[in-house]
Design a protein that fits this description.
4-stranded mixed β-sheet; 41% strand; 17% helix; globular; 60s Ribosomal Protein L30, Chain: A
């Protein structure tokens, strides 16, 4: 069976900060309790505020491109940035099923591109494309 891919709509989100790496996202206590760090919570709130007015993207699956612009003195591994971004945009409902309109998780992301660049100011740009598949 060959699937045709048809791109749907897309959204672009601009956040004036960079996400904390995966090592600074969740902490664990000796008692086995997991909690989100203040740094991660602050980024989640900033990302959610940046999504106000952004239309959800509908599709069967999704392609996401994340560009992280590191400001002066900032560091980070490119593979550590997407976790918090994908979790947050999934939870706030930007991934939507094309047929039902129901929220979908980041498990439906089939292509992820992450780019790290240097610049004067810190920022993160997220592009989401909904892909419709037809058999």
């Amino acid at each position: 069976m060959i699937l045709e891919r048809h791109e749907q709509v897309f959204s672009i989100i601009k956040v004036p900060a960079i996400p904390p790496g995966v090592n600074n996202y969740v902490r664990h206590t000796r008692n086995g309790i997991h909690y989100i760090t203040r740094e991660a919570q602050a980024f989640k709130e900033l990302l959610a505020a940046s999504c106000v007015g952004v239309d959800p993207v509908h599709g069967h699956e999704f392609e996401v491109e994340i560009t992280v612009m590191l400001g002066k003195g900032e560091r980070g591994d490119v593979d550590n940035f997407p976790k918090l971004v994908l979790d947050t945009i999934g939870k706030i409902g930007l991934f939507r099923d094309i047929k039902t309109g129901k929220k979908m998780s980041d498990a439906h992301v089939t292509r992820l591109t992450v780019t790290k660049e240097r610049g004067e100011e810190s920022r993160t740009v997220i592009e989401i494309v909904g892909v419709q598949t037809k058999s």
